[in-house]
Amino acid sequence: MLIKIASEISAGLVASAIVLTSSPDQAIIDFNTTPAVAGVQIESDQLLGANNWWSYPVDDDIYTYSLSEIQERNEISLTVNKSFQLPQDYIPANLVFAANFGLSDDPEIQIREEITEDLSELFKAAKVDGHDLTIVSGYRSYETQISTYAYWLNYNANDVDAADKISARPGHSEHQLGSTVDISSKAVQNQLGASFNYSEAYLWLKDNAYRYNFYLSYPQGQEVKTGYSFEGWHWRWYGE
Fold first, then answer.
1. Residues 6+ apart with CB under 8 A from 215
2. pTM: predicted TM-score of the whole model, two decimal places
3. Could you say which of 72, 113, 231, 240 is catalytic?
4. Is position 231 annotated as part of the catalytic site?
5. What is the mean pLDDT of residues 194-200?
6. Rg (CA), the chain
7. C-alpha pair distances (Å), 3 with each of 117, 147, 163
8. Where are the domains of the chain?
9. For 97-120, how does the pLDDT look when each residue is reduced to its tens digit (9 = 90+)?
10. Which terminus of the chain, N or C, has less C-beta within 10 A?
């Protein structure tokens, strides 16, 4: 069964361009769909930087959601990328601590309460198959993303192009929605990066995460369309 999420089309906002299918090989973002926002015309070459796949559009071509707009829409399926950003004062409702649900060893990580049931079931299924998964990052505020992006910019000797390939600028991170998590496993000491990208746990998620409504945001080979390097750990929940 094929389901395309395009909530609130009648109001002029295609909330997301996601194709969810019963096949794990097809459970990825439909990158060929152009989002449309309330009368704003976005050309296809403006969705990501026109010059390089990791570039941002010029400021005038970046759409910033208003708080009132977010409240009126299904924020779970909002498009958040290099062309569409969340406002600085957006904080999702119903944030809970992941550790309280046995989903993380870090007591400070927060996620949306709505995702806890599916995530718990996903982790249980993974454990049955021998994969001990954990969340290593969940909700990030706008302010936290400022620090995160600054860290990667500094790590890359202030090379903006290098930082933009691997880290979202403030407002452009799916983590601010609270429904996106970075997942790792005990088998790779809860690390991210290449150690997880090529792990058995990642392969398990690739084959099974869709069953629990989680989808990989930045698949391998889709960098030109996503604007980010492959991240096998970055999974976003879209609900049923």
1. 18, 20, 27, 28, 29, 209, 235, 236, 238
2. 0.80
3. 231
4. yes
5. 92
6. 17
7. 21, 37, 34
8. 3-237
9. 999 999 999 999 999 999 999 999
10. N
